[in-house]
Amino acid sequence: VLTLDARALxxxxxxxxxxxxxxxxxxxxxDVDAFKARTGIDAREFDTLAVGAxxxxxxxxxxxxxxxxxxxxxxxxxxxxxxxxxxxxxGGLAEQTHGGKTVxxxxxxxxxxxxxxxxxxxxxxxxxxxxxxxxxxxxxxxVRAAIDAQGRSEERRVGKECRSRW
Length: 166
What we know:
166 residues; alpha+beta; 4 helices; 41% helix; globular
């Protein structure tokens, strides 16, 4: 699991780190814009990212990063995000319901840079608005697992409140 301050990364860290390499900084910004154009999701709208992944050893001895899932918190408008994702998917955005939330799934089947940062092959990219400030993003089954985890967390919180009253 990796957590990062996404707002600082895009506003301060990358511009400072790549100040002497304007071409590379322009490429990173172009990658973020390409991800937004492809998915409707703008990485610059998020304050923090928590990213989980599975590291798999291949029979060849190489290592593969698999099942990347991100939970992003920030100041985005869920309705605008869904509208942008629909437009980017050009009618190819499926909707599923899971745990009382809507999971949006776009068939990508291509190599993309997730949030403009990490390049990977993505078949289906799913996202769900967990609350007004939180988005889960990844493979459909992983986004459903994030919804389930949020539900279990809420059940524990309510359970603690009930026990403390008695």
